[in-house]
Amino acid sequence: MTTMMRAFETGATAVASTLASAAAPVEAAPVGQPAPQPAQPQPAPPHGRAIVITSGKGGVGKTTTTANLGTALAARGQRVVLVDADVGLRNLDIVLGLESRVRFHLLDVLEEKASLDEALVRDKRSDSLSLLAAAQTREKEDVVTAHMTALIEELRRRFDYVLIDCPAGIEKGFKNAVAGAQHAIIVCTPEVSAVRDADRVVGLLPNDWHPDLIVNRVRPQLVKKGKMLSVEDVNDILRLPLLGVIAEEPGVIVATNKGEPLALDPASGIGAAYRAIAAKLAGDEAPSAGSDPAVSGGGWFAKLGALLGGR
Questions:
Q1: CB of 245 closer than 8 Å to CB of 190
Q2: Is the dihedral of CA 276, 96, 58, 208 positive or negative?
Q3: Alpha-carbon distance 160 to 48, whole Å?
């Protein structure tokens, strides 16, 4: 009995000691040691779509497409940022008419010489459109791919669409542009060399991606005379979902030189085509591939005329 009582008293003392310890306030950290830090809130998961505009071949209209597609999406009320990934040869700021407003660039942000907020340039015409310019005097090899991926992820937290203007080629610049993206739009002109390069780029994209196609600078009269590949010819090789067709038109060069995207011009057939592409990208109802003359053949000139506002 005495042994049992001693055991009970020992147990009761231990329980009381535990309760007292639980009720006591937490002591401050000893002098000279850092105080415990409260748990930091986790950043919101990225929600925006990161899309790389690519082709492989230079001069097919990637930058013009990026500017006009971004402008058209912003006009629909989407928050859009355009990222110029062509380090050393930036042009996206010129196409948007923002070259005089660029103070910091992509590498300034990646190397923590400027904040992202400092480097983002607000568009003149739309508060929901921003630009992150490329560096002019640096090399593509200066970009650390992992840092680029993290930057695109942060932009996806802030914007509905992140459009990445990819440099030509398939070297480091291409890899950096693709690294943070989730989807690709292939821009291709109706030229054998452009189609071959586009096909090569498609093969380098992640296997689970399903890129879309924009056929740019189509000249219906040359197609009709058999002197230019048709949209059907291009896609017989690439076999990609057709997002849109853009005709060759002198007004594109004029608008580019002025820094005024045609997507905002209600009288422009090219602008109407870019707005239709933006609507399709945003998920608005569009004709099925089987009913689209640009895909099925037999009436693709009429379809192109409709895309260009009846021209």
A1: no
A2: negative
A3: 4
Instruction: Report the top-level CATH class of 49-282.
Output: alpha beta
Phi, psi of 158 (to 5 degrees): -100, -25
What local confidence, expressed as pLDDT, does residue 305 receive? Answer: 45
> Scanning the structure block, which residue is given the tokens 């190397």?
111
Residue 191: closest CA among 170, 222, 163: 222
pLDDT digits (tens, 9 = 90+) for 121-157: 999 999 999 999 999 989 999 999 999 999 999 999 9
Mean pLDDT of 189-202: 97
Residue 78 contacts residue 207 (beta carbons within 8 Å) = no
Task: Name 50's bridge partners.
Answer: 162
SS3 216: strand
Under DSSP, the state recorded for 59 is T
Mapped onto helix, strand or coil, the DSSP state of residue 201 is: helix
234-277: per-residue pLDDT in tens? 999 999 999 999 999 988 999 999 999 999 999 999 999 999 99
**Going by C-beta distance under 8 Å and a sequence separation of 6 or more, which residues neighbour residue 113?**
104, 107
For the record, the structure tokens of 245 come out as 């067709």
What is the distance between the alpha carbons of residues 44 and 42, in angstroms, rounded to a whole number? 6
Collapsing DSSP states into helix, strand and coil, what is residue 33? Answer: coil
